[in-house]
Amino acid sequence: MQTEHNIRLTSSEIASLWTAYMNNSMSYCMLKYFREKNTRYRNSSDIRLCH
Q: For residue 48, which of 39, 35, 37 has the smallest C-alpha distance?
């Protein structure tokens, strides 16, 4: 027998998830930008991004 659970997120939980997503996205973009602008590591694989 399967039980179906329909648990809804509260607005504060959704906001927390959205904030975490936006912060991670911004960090990734900033690191990618700085890596491209940094001449020391431009052609190196010393700095690896997870995406």
A: 35
Cβ–Cβ under 8 Å, residues 35 and 49: yes
**1-51 pLDDT per residue, tens:** 678 888 899 999 999 999 999 999 999 999 888 888 876 655 555 556 555
3-state SS, residue 48: coil
Structure tokens at 35: 């890596």
Determine how many CB atoms are found less than 10 A away from the CB of residue 33: 10
Rounded distance, CA 33 to CA 47, Å? 12
Burial of 17 (C-beta count, 10 Å sphere; 0-12/13-18/19+): exposed
The tokens describing 27, both together, are 């960090």
